[in-house]
Design the sequence.
């Protein structure tokens, strides 16, 4: 379980959160406060739960925290798609990075017994 501290998922989820923070500032500048808030919460929660997982007290706890990170990543992708459909074209890199995080989390969860 401690191997996650040096893993790509930890650094990728942290960088993704940084990018979400930056993008939500743009949304707030356009007075899109509510959706910016939703995106900020789910997008930064991915990395927070990945970090919590590394401190899991058991394999079950580890999987649970990564499962929450996966749900938050999926919710973030939803908000990005909604913004793209109703407000403005979202940066392709955000959606691509979110999809990559989802794939990595699914893989980790499948391979954790």
Sequence:
């Amino acid at each position: 379980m401690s191997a996650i501290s040096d893993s790509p998922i930890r650094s990728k989820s942290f960088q993704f959160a940084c990018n979400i923070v930056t993008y939500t500032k743009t949304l707030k500048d356009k007075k899109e406060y509510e959706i910016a808030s939703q995106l900020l919460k789910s997008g930064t929660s991915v990395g927070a739960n990945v970090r919590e997982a590394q401190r899991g007290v058991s394999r079950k706890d580890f999987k649970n925290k990564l499962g929450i990170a996966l749900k938050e990543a999926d919710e973030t992708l939803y908000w990005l798609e909604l913004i793209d459909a109703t407000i403005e074209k979202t940066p392709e890199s955000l959606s691509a990075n979110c999809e990559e995080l989802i794939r990595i989390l699914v893989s980790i969860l499948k391979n954790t017994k």
Remarks:
- The chain has a mean pLDDT of 94.
- Residues 46 and 71 are 8 Å apart (CA to CA).
- The longest helix spans residues 59-86.
- The two ends are 12 Å apart (CA to CA).
